[in-house]
Amino acid sequence: MMDPKNEISKFGRKVVSQGLAYAHFGNISLLSEGKILITSTGSMLDEIGHDQVIEVSREGPCPEDALASCETVVHRAIYERTKAGAVIHTHSPYAVATSILEEGPFEPMDGEGSKFLGAVPIVEGEMGSLSLAKHASSALKEHRACIVRGHGVFAIGATLEEAYIVVCMVEHSAMIRRLVSAG
Question: Which UniProt keywords apply (predicted)?
Answer without folding.
Answer: Lyase, Metal-binding
